[in-house]
UniProtKB/TrEMBL annotation:
Residues covered by region (Disordered): 1-39, 88-120, 156-195
Protein name: Late embryogenesis abundant protein
Polar residues bias (residue ranges): 1-17
Signal peptide: none
Pro residues composition-biased segments: 184-195
Organism name: Streptomyces cahuitamycinicus
Bias (Basic and acidic residues): 108-118
Residue spans of biased composition, Low complexity class: 156-170
C-alpha cells in the first residue's frame, strides 16, 4: 500500500509537472501574441503619426508658399504704383531738368522690377538670390545686412508714424492719485522746505 501511495504521489507530481509545463507554454504563446500585437500597434501608430506630420508639413509649406506669392504680387503692385507716381512727377517736370531724367530712370527701373516680380514670383526670386549668393557671398551678405537695417528702420519709422512705437510709456500711476495741472508742482512733505 505504501508503494501504491508513493506511485500515486509520483503520478500526481508528474501530472502537475506536465500541466505546469503546458500552462507555461500557453503563457509564453500568449505573451508572444501580446508582444506581437503591441509591436504591430506601435508600428501602426508610428506610421499614422508620420503620415499626419507629413500632411501637416505639406499643408504648412503650401500656406507659406501661397502667402509669399500673395505678398510678392502685392509688392509688385505697390512698386508699380510708385513707378507710376514717379513717371507722373517726371512728366510734370521741366524738360531740361536734371531731376527729370533721374526720376524717369527710377520709374523705369521700378516698372521693370514690378514686371520681374509678376513674371518670376517668389520661386524665381529665391532662385536668383541663391545663384547670386553662390557667386558672390560677400556681396550677398552685405546686401542682406543693408536690407535688414533698412527694413528695421522703415518698420520703426512706420510704428512711430502711427503712434504705436514711441518706445516710451508713461509710468503707471498708483490708484487714488490725481493728475496735476500742467505747471503745478506736487506738494512737499511736511517738515521739508520750512526753515
Amino acid at each position: 500500500m505504501a508503494n501504491e501511495s508513493t506511485g500515486r504521489a509520483q503520478q500526481a507530481g508528474q501530472t502537475a509537472k506536465q500541466e505546469a509545463w503546458a500552462t507555461a507554454g500557453q503563457a509564453r504563446e500568449g505573451a508572444s501574441r501580446v508582444a506581437g500585437t503591441a509591436t504591430d500597434q506601435v508600428r501602426a501608430v508610428t506610421g499614422e503619426a508620420r503620415a499626419q506630420a507629413g500632411a501637416i508639413a505639406g499643408d504648412l509649406r503650401t500656406r507659406v508658399t501661397d502667402e509669399a506669392e500673395n505678398q510678392t504680387r502685392r509688392g509688385a503692385r505697390v512698386m508699380r504704383q510708385w513707378a507710376d507716381d514717379l513717371s507722373g512727377l517726371a512728366d510734370g517736370a521741366d524738360a531740361d531738368s536734371p531731376a527729370r531724367s533721374l526720376v524717369t530712370q527710377a520709374a523705369d527701373r521700378g516698372h521693370r522690377a514690378a514686371d520681374y516680380l509678376d513674371s518670376r514670383g517668389v520661386g524665381g526670386l529665391v532662385d536668383d538670390l541663391q545663384h547670386f549668393a553662390r557667386r558672390r557671398p560677400g556681396a550677398f551678405l552685405g546686401g542682406a545686412i543693408v536690407a535688414g537695417f533698412t527694413v528695421g528702420r522703415l518698420a520703426k519709422a512706420g510704428s512711430k508714424a502711427d503712434g504705436s512705437g514711441s518706445g516710451r510709456s508713461a509710468p503707471p500711476r498708483a490708484s487714488g492719485t490725481q493728475e496735476l495741472p500742467g505747471d503745478a508742482a506736487p506738494p512737499e512733505p511736511p517738515g521739508h522746505g520750512e526753515v
